[in-house]
Amino acid sequence: MKQRFFCLALWLCLGFTFLAGQTSIKNALGEEVERIDLEEFLSIAMEDFEIPGLSLAIINDGQVVYHTVRGMADREEEVKVDALTIFEGASLSKPLFAHFVMTFVEEGKLDLDRPLYEYLPYEDIADDERYKQITARMVLCHTTGFPNWRTDYPAQKLFIQFEPGSSWHYSGEGYQYLALVLAKLANTDAKGLEALFQERIAVPIGLSHTRFIQDSTNLARKAKPYKEGMKLKSSFTNEAFGAAYGVHTEAQDFSKWLIAVLDEALLKKESYAVLFEDQVRFPADSENAQAGNSHWTLGFSKFNSPFGTFYTHGGNNPGFTSAFGIQRAQKWGVVYFTNANQVSDFGFELFAFLHEQ
After folding, report:
1. For every residue of 233-248, which 3-state class applies, written as one string?
2. How confident is the model at residue 59 (pLDDT cuts 50, 70, 90)?
3. Cystine design at 296: which of 92, 102, 275, 280 (Cβ 3.0–4.6 Å)?
């Protein structure tokens, strides 16, 4: 026990906790979570999972009631994580992008069920006529038939592995194609699409530094990536609109978007019904179902737990891991960002801790 509290004291020295007027923290069941227990859990878990730095927020009743940043953004240069430290959100980009896509749907420029090639032919897969079946809905619920990334395969060429719409396979490639379609519809390029995202989503809800294409300020504040305690060379490129992988942010800022989703802001109520409608049901014996994921919606995984239904997404880029979970009826949520490689189990343990108090 002494060792645990020593670790707690150490991490408190390396980070900061922001309290909302000492408001109590509750889990999604409405049960109170003791702050000192949460602080101790985080300090020990960060050590166990070799997480250099962390940004985390918890939402109760549509408000952030707990926000902490702790650890190191750059161990070698002795730079601490602070409230302005930026992390790669990786695949947390996908549900945020889905929200953005719905603005085009509401505008009448995009039909979720119209083949994307009718908006923009895709030369990368033009040799396979099946691609002409692919729609925005298929992209957002991962039924295009595309692989996750073509670069995962020796030929490094885009391909289709099953009839579009007939099965589920997680794919960043589909999201990148849809981003190209949106740029065409808006008669712009990647930077113009970022400007449109800022105009339609970021600025109205006060996102200060959540971006798909990074400005110099975000890049200067960015945490360094780590794997098992060793710093990695960054592989991030800042040229394309990374609909599937590119968002950079931190917990306090990203929470504003989660709260907007919980409040059903920016979009019509009917659009939220579409976003959260079940699209793919996972077979009971599938890996997804065994992990608790019952369905995929448009950009979100639907997670059924003993504590209720949550809409979630995780993210993994080299040297960064992140995740969020929200419960819509209770307007409850949790989100975290780390500069550690493939530590998703930290998120599972965090969620379990919050609900086993």
Report:
1. CCCCCCCCCCCCCEEE
2. very high
3. 280
